[in-house]
Backbone:
């Protein structure tokens, strides 16, 4: 396989894995460009789907000689969906891969302890390309960076608003940013009002958004989150809220002992970032209110399992629990 230097030599196979679909697209696009520089990809590429392709067919494609080129590309999407026998065929192939083929395996998730993952990783340090999604806290900054590539700038609040409306999928975010950029007028930054006017809500709220609003005793936020939920079970949601109540009881106890976030995280066996808001939330409840909330949750759950409308019973419990008593 022709290469310019040893450091940028193409490997016989790559695994592009992770839930950030936009990053996967970018990585695969760059890989295609590198191979296209060696010859016409129209005659030297083959696209297969791991959900349907047989391992033997993929291996045959890999062993096919390129036409008027130094290399050919065999791309397999949904590599995590390969059946075991088909995956094993690729593992055997990767033990002695063709020197004139680049096998590109794309997967949303593939465990590091699988034989296929290990077989690709053994080819070199750059063989596995991690496309893990950005953390939620990092996503607004990524949205603002994505906006610049489309010729516009976003305010911080605009980036947050877009994520609330569209969700965390980077491909969907990028598509919406492109639409907003085309509709944007003027030279100023896109603000949250413009995002709201130009973007339809497609994202379903996450359960943790409800438990955070519940812990904060923000009834308006609770109702807003619930209005954006379609698939979440009220039985699962009440269990999550009860877990949060118990965490807040623990937070109050740790506060009385003078323990900080690290002590609370250790007691709950959670990472520090998962409990950073607990101390503030715990101060919004009295110990008696937390105990009463647990008791009323038990009654609400009995009603939900006893034939009452589960969604209505859960909503009534949330409203009654979150509301502060009249002073």
Residues:
């Amino acid at each position: 396989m022709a290469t310019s230097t040893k450091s940028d030599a193409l490997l016989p196979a790559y695994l592009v894995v992770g839930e950030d679909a936009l990053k996967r697209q970018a990585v695969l696009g760059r890989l295609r460009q590198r191979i296209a520089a060696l010859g016409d990809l129209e005659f030297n590429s083959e696209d297969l789907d791991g959900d349907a392709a047989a391992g033997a067919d993929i291996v045959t494609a890999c062993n096919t000689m390129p036409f008027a080129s130094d290399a050919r590309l065999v791309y397999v999407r949904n590599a995590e969906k390969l059946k075991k026998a088909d995956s094993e065929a690729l593992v055997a192939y990767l033990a002695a891969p063709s020197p004139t083929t680049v096998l590109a395996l794309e997967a949303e998730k593939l465990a590091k302890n699988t034989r296929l993952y290990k077989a690709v990783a053994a080819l070199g340090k750059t063989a596995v390309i991690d496309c893990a999604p950005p953390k939620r806290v990092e996503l607004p900054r990524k949205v603002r960076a994505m906006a610049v590539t489309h010729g516009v700038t976003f305010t911080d609040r605009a980036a947050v608003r877009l994520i609330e409306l569209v969700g965390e999928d980077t491909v969907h975010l990028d598509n919406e940013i492109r639409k907003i950029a085309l509709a944007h007028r003027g030279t100023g930054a896109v603000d949250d009002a413009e995002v709201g006017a130009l973007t339809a809500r497609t994202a379903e709220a996450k359960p943790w958004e409800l438990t955070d609003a519940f812990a904060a005793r923000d009834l308006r936020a609770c109702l807003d989150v619930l209005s954006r939920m379609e698939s979440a079970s009220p039985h699962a949601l009440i269990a999550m809220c009860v877990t949060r109540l118990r965490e807040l009881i623990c937070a109050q106890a740790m506060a009385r002992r003078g323990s900080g976030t690290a002590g609370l995280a250790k007691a709950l066996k959670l990472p520090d970032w998962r409990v950073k808001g607990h101390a503030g939330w715990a101060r919004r409840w009295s110990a008696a209110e937390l105990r009463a909330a647990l008791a009323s949750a038990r009654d609400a759950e009995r009603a939900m399992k006893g034939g009452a409308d589960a969604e209505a019973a859960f909503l009534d419990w949330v409203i009654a629990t979150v509301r502060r008593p009249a002073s």
Observations:
- The longest strand covers residues 101-107.
